[in-house]
Specification:
Elements lengths: L2 H21 L3 H25 L6 H22 L5 H23 L8 H18 L4 H21 L4 H8 L1
C-alpha cells in the first residue's frame, strides 16, 4: 500500500468518529480530525501524482473517500443544528448520486479525473465544514454557510456532466 492510498483510507474511515464526536459535542476532536482528513486529501493527490500512481484504483477510491469524510460530517453538523438542513440534504443526495454513477463508470472501464469545478466544490465543502465545526462564531458560521451553499450550487451545476454516463448505462 502506498502512502497516498493510506491517506485515502484514513479519510474514508475518519467520517465515522467525526460524526460520533459531533453528536457527542466533542467539537475540538471533530475539527482536528476533519482538518487532518481535509489535508490528507490534498497530500494524497500530490503524493500519487509525484509517485506516478495517480491512476488505477485511486481514481475511484479518492473521490469516494472524500464523500466518506464529508457526508457523515455534514449529517452530524445538520443534526446538531450547525449546518443548514436543506443545503445539507441537497449535498448528500447529489454526492450519493455522483458516487453511484462514478462506481458504475469505473466498473464499465471509464476512468475520469476530477474537473476543476469538482475540486473547487470539494475545497468549498471542506473549508465550510471546518468553519461550521470550529468553536462558535457568528462570522465563521455565516462564512461556513455561504461556502457550503456555494459548494451545493457548484455541485448542482456540475451534475449534468455525470448524467450522460447514467443514460448510457440504462439504455
Amino acid at each position: 500500500m502506498t502512502i497516498a492510498n493510506g491517506l485515502t483510507l484514513f479519510r474514508a474511515v475518519a467520517g465515522i468518529p467525526i460524526f460520533i464526536a459531533l453528536v457527542g459535542g466533542e467539537m475540538t476532536f471533530a475539527v482536528v480530525l476533519f482538518g487532518l482528513g481535509a489535508i490528507s486529501d490534498a497530500l494524497d493527490g500530490f503524493l500519487a501524482r509525484r509517485g506516478g500512481t495517480a491512476e488505477g484504483r485511486g481514481v475511484i477510491l479518492d473521490p469516494l473517500a472524500d464523500k466518506a469524510l464529508v457526508l457523515p460530517t455534514l449529517v452530524g453538523l445538520a443534526l446538531v443544528g450547525s449546518a443548514p438542513l436543506a443545503i445539507a440534504a441537497i449535498i448528500v443526495v447529489r454526492e450519493l448520486l455522483v458516487a453511484a454513477i462514478r462506481v458504475l463508470m469505473y466498473r464499465q472501464g471509464v476512468r475520469t479525473h476530477a474537473s476543476g469545478a469538482a475540486k473547487a466544490k470539494t475545497v468549498f465543502e471542506m473549508a465550510a465544514l471546518v468553519l461550521l465545526i470550529a468553536p462558535p462564531s457568528v462570522v465563521a458560521a455565516e462564512v461556513g454557510a455561504v461556502l457550503l451553499t456555494s459548494a451545493a450550487l457548484i455541485g448542482i451545476l456540475t451534475l449534468p456532466t455525470y448524467l450522460p454516463h447514467m443514460r448510457h448505462r440504462f439504455t
